[in-house]
Design brief:
This is MAPEG family protein. Keywords: Membrane, Transmembrane, Transmembrane helix. Its main location: membrane. With 127 residues, the protein is mainly alpha-helical. 83% of the residues lie in helices and 0% in strands. The longest helix is centred in the middle third of the chain and has 31 residues, at 41-71.
Length: 127
């Protein structure tokens, strides 16, 4: 059973992860801070944006993949995958701006809504 939605979502999120990694590396190079943030606010913001992505994306992909595997590809699975990609991109953009801002809010909501929905769906499918 192909899991095209999860595969596409993971691929797009992987590209975003690389971009976030490069953004951290660029500031590390310019500030010569190789460990931690060295008190640099730009570096701290980029580190946290990268870390936040790394914290949420794995569980989202696991849930998306399991739901798609058990339930099959459908419009809701596709909508969840698209929402996750857009949300994580918005969150990354929002982290580069002063808080609070609309990008960060959309990113947060667009992460939590699929997380709750996919978690509940997974529990439903399991029982």
């Amino acid at each position: 059973m192909p899991m095209q939605t999860t595969l596409l979502t993971a691929g797009l999120l992987g590209l975003i992860f690389i971009a976030l990694s490069v953004r951290v590396i660029m500031v590390r190079g310019s500030t010569k801070v190789m460990l931690g943030d060295g008190g640099d606010q730009t570096l701290l913001s980029r580190i946290r944006s990268h870390a936040n992505f790394a914290e949420y994306v794995p569980i989202l992909l696991i849930l998306l993949g399991l739901v798609e595997y058990i339930n099959g590809t459908n419009t809701l699975v596709q909508a969840a995958g698209a929402t996750i990609v857009v949300a994580r991109l918005c969150h990354a953009l929002g982290m580069a701006r002063p808080a609070p801002n609309v990008f960060r809010m959309v990113g947060m909501l667009g992460t939590f809504v699929p997380l709750v929905a996919l978690s509940a769906w997974a529990v439903f499918l399991a029982i």
